[in-house]
Specification:
By secondary structure, this protein is of the alpha+beta class. The chain has helices at about 25-35, 95, 135-150, 155-160, 180, 210-215, 225-240, 250-255, 265-270, 275-280, 325-345, 355-360, 365-375; strands spanning about 15-20, 35-45, 45-50, 65-70, 70-75, 100-110, 115-120, 125-130, 160-165, 195, 200-205, 220, 285-295, 300-305, 315, 320. Strand 4 and strand 5 (about 70-75) form a beta hairpin.
């Protein structure tokens, strides 16, 4: 059976070993030798984003990120850490479920007959560096949908070619709340290789056969007890630093019992229906399909594009909009994400990454909205 990381059988996690900071380039060399195209974090346009990466020097060394509702700013830390920041606007979603891709094409032949051709996803071995625990949780949800419920061939091909190198999140943002959803900040599986960044280097641990082979290609030494203690203290501090939280219970029944709650109208007065929240969300996967015809009428390409429950046409059915205003669209997003997903996938669709809070232009905080709607009658929002 494939592992959670999409490769060979999961192996027993060995005692973490230590990679000196000056030897980090050896990881990139091992990936190149294995035939992987490397994707990792880089500073672009004022944010830390995923892009092609071939050298450790291109990592965001010495950078941090200050995040708040509706606010994201890079800051120079003045140290040599590469991963001392919380998530940027991207997750794994754009790498596996593309914003736009062709599914099939229709062509008219010389004899006038129309032929249909499926568009195969290009195969390429890719390794992604600096995946966080919340995004691994989101990936597990996408696997449930695209591999087990629907068996999407385009997603499946990219997933099979993906190698994951995760990093424990040592510096959560003010908008993070993964502790309350049970999805971080420490990586505990669902990856091939995992790193814990310390001042002098990295603790390295493997979870799959592919991860173990990569680990064994690195110049590692045994980790000292002091380094192991430092890593544990760092994760404990990351947990304690999170001040936001999602109410610690299944919100399905409370949300669906409050579809007429006045809070939906209140948040709609602020919401721009811009769709930023669903674009940066690592679990949202709503889409629409369109046909793009050639100007000469000889061919047509059927495309799949990301869509959003905040767009009007997303609820268009038989000549009418089922959700005609921002109030009903925001309600649909929150009740489905935090409620309906329990029926479909056995858990909430929120992994606590906080991106929707950071990248909302007006700073709407879904933890506040969920607490307000789900608060017992006569009480204020759950603290």
């Amino acid at each position: 059976m494939p592992s959670a990381a999409g490769h060979g059988a999961i192996v027993m996690k060995a005692r973490p070993r230590f990679l000196p900071r000056e030897a980090l380039q050896s990881l990139f060399e091992a990936l190149a030798a294995g035939g992987y195209r490397c994707v990792g974090p880089q500073v672009r346009d004022g944010a830390i984003v995923y892009a092609d990466l071939s050298d450790a020097s291109a990592l965001p060394v010495g950078f941090g990120a200050r995040q708040a509702p509706g606010e994201y700013r890079l800051e120079e830390r003045g140290d040599q850490r590469c991963f001392a920041w919380a998530n940027g606007p991207q997750a794994l979603k754009p790498l596996l479920f593309r914003p736009q891709e062709p599914l099939w094409q229709a062509r008219r032949g010389a004899d006038g007959r129309i032929q249909f051709e499926s568009a195969a996803a290009p195969r390429e071995r890719r390794a992604v560096i600096s995946v966080r625990a919340c995004d691994l949780a989101a990936l597990a949800l996408h696997d449930k949908h695209f591999l087990h419920k629907e068996r999407d061939p385009w997603y499946a091909a990219r997933r099979a070619d993906l190698l994951l190198i995760a990093v424990d999140c040592s510096h959560p943002a003010d908008t993070c709340f993964c502790v309350s959803t049970g999805d971080g900040p420490a990586v505990e599986g669902e990856t091939d290789l995992a790193l814990t960044e310390l001042d002098r280097g990295f603790l390295v641990r493997a979870y799959t056969a592919e991860g173990a082979a990569l680990r064994d290609a690195l110049p590692l030494r045994e980790a000292t007890p002091e380094e192991l203690d430092e890593a544990e203290a760092q994760i404990a501090q990351a947990r304690q630093s999170q001040t936001r939280r999602m109410p610690d219970r299944n919100l399905r029944d409370a949300l669906f019992a409050n579809l007429d709650h006045p809070r939906w109208a209140e948040v709609a007065e602020r919401c721009l229906s811009c769709g930023n929240c669903v674009a940066v969300c690592p679990t949202c996967f709503c889409h629409t399909e369109r046909d793009l015809g050639a100007l000469d009428g000889t061919a047509s390409t059927h495309l799949r594009r990301w869509d959003s429950c905040f767009s009007a046409e997303h609820s268009y059915l038989h000549g009418r909009l089922l959700r005609p205003d921002t109030r009903t669209r925001y309600r649909q997003w929150l009740t489905h994400k935090l409620g309906g997903w329990h029926d479909q996938y056995g858990r909430s669709g929120c992994v606590g990454c906080g991106r929707c809070i950071t990248w909302c232009p007006v700073g709407i905080d879904l933890t506040e909205e969920a607490a307000a709607v789900c608060a017992p009658s006569g009480e204020g929002p759950v603290p």
